[in-house]
């Protein structure tokens, strides 16, 4: 497995190149694993509860639910609390009082007709209004080893505001969603839980879009796929 420093440098170089020109379709690097069959028919975007296009899918992991939980825990990401009256009141109060909430709830988005199976986050500063976060959906289709694909949408919440399309108070995401994808790959690689990884080029043909909250985003169009192995 590539060490964390080499992986970080590679991500910096490829991200800079992607901003300069559209990425060319390339073969998977030597030593990486084969693609998961669920990728052939995977959605490219989440949807809101009203059916509007949500955040773009930009990362995926292959492995069991236990492996995914363990990997994110080792990478210092925290499981989001479910949305309840108590958790909703707490996140509102903590934003006002500038108090940390490592397990703050995230709103529901949908993929394959259902809300996320898992949600994780990494807080920034002393207020839950800013955080790295990712939602995951488990594929019904498994690979030859019986492992599902966990499709994810990783974004950065940069502030709280009134939604321009859905109504109500919501988080506004930062437009550079590739940075969140890259960060999550680096975090899990640094923790030593990746058996390999590869890129799916041209996963998104549209490089710019707007999510269900009216927030613009930009992407190089690639999906990062990590293969988990926490037995190392």
Task: Estimate what percentage of residues fall within beta strands.
Answer: 25-35%
Measure the end-to-end span.
11 Å
Alpha carbon gyration radius: 17 Å
Report the count of strand segments: 14
Give structural notes.
The chain is an alpha+beta fold and 232 residues long. The chain has one domain (4-20, 53-228). The protein contains four helices and 14 strands. The protein has helices at residues 4-20, 65-74, 85-97, 177-190, and strands at 45-47, 53-56, 59-62, 78-79, 110-111, 114-115, 118-123, 131-142, 148-162, 169-173, 194-200, 208-210, 216-218, 223-228. The strands form four sheets. Strands 3, 4, 7, 8, 9, 10, 11 and 14 form an eight-stranded mixed beta sheet that branches. It has a two-stranded antiparallel sheet with strand order 1-2. It has a two-stranded antiparallel sheet with strand order 5-6. β12 (208-210) and β13 form a beta hairpin. α1 runs antiparallel to α4. The longest helix has 17 residues, at 4-20. It is globular and about 40 Å long. The termini are close together.
